[in-house]
Amino acid sequence: MATTLAKADNAEAVEHAARIEHVSKSFAGPTGQQLVLDDITLDVAPGEFVTLLGASGCGKSTLLNLVAGLDAPSQGSITTDGRPALMFQEHALFPWLTAGKNIELALKLGGVPKNDRRDRAEELLELVRLNGSYGKRVHELSGGMRQRVALARALAQESRLLLMDEPFAALDAITRDVLHDELTRIWEETGLSVLFVTHNVREAVRLAQRVILLSSRPGRIAQEWRVDIPQPRRIEDAPVAELSIEITEKLREEIRRHGQQ
């Protein structure tokens, strides 16, 4: 029974920003169908910040692409509260456009009238603390600034669900830490739901209200943790470190278990 992505248009849209029910995904391989995700069931509540954690190749990005509607599950169903916005590891900005025009393009695709786009783009740049950067070209921006523009462009889609696929992985530690603070602030100000993919345990604990650990090949939900540490948090905070150690041990168990198969 294969089903495709659907937009929630009933009461469940209030209860769930995303609902993933018994989702499996297979791809054709040299020896036949390869099962990548196996029977994933997961809800993301409105306004909730959830991180998906796991070793490389466990299917985290595949699951995110399914939720985004870029691919269809082999089995199961996915329902979202409207169309999600997706932010990748690479900023994917158009280099021939300015920061503001990159955002305006998303606004144009979203049906925002031409006369309103400049003001809205400026507002979004202010939200990500890039005031005065509307006219800057991509090559004039640092890596962290480019990711801020990419975030503003994602927010321009007016989605209630933001999907983030390791957006800070390529950044240095200091810039990444600053953007953790900024993302937390924006999440709290906007009330967005966030589903965030990472392989960095401390990043997962630093950001999320709930951490979901996927096992490897095929990806299954191995365990989840609710993070009851008040924000703002820091990577080096003792409670963050303590929970990160616990999750890391479980992750190592999953990796060892896979290595013995």
Short characterization:
Residues 18-243 form the ABC transporter domain. With 261 residues, the chain is α/β, with parallel strands linked by helices.
Structure report:
With 261 residues, the chain is of the alpha/beta class. The chain has a domain at 93-158. It is 38% helix and 24% strand. The protein has eight helices and ten strands. It has helices spanning 12-15, 60-68, 99-109, 114-127, 143-155, 173-190, 201-207, 238-259, and strands at residues 6-7, 18-29, 32-44, 49-53, 75-80, 85-87, 161-165, 193-198, 210-214, 221-226. The strands form two sheets. It has a six-stranded mixed beta sheet, sandwiched between helices. Strand 7 (161-165), helix 6 (173-190) and strand 8 form a beta-alpha-beta unit. It starts with 5 loop residues before the first strand and ends with a helix. Residues 1-13 have low confidence and may be disordered.
User: Could you give the order of strands across the largest sheet?
Assistant: 6-7-8-4-9-10
Helix content: 25-40%
Helix vs. strand class = alpha/beta
Radius of gyration: 19 Å
- What value does the average pLDDT take? 89
Total strands: the figure is 10
Largest sheet: 6 strands, mixed
Percent of residues in beta strands: 15-25%
Overall, the morphology is globular
Can you tell me the residue ranges where pLDDT is under 50 for at least 5 consecutive residues? 1-13
**Count of DSSP-assigned helices:** 8
Distance between the termini: 29 Å
SSE string? EHEEEHEEHHHEHEHEEH
Oligomer: single chain
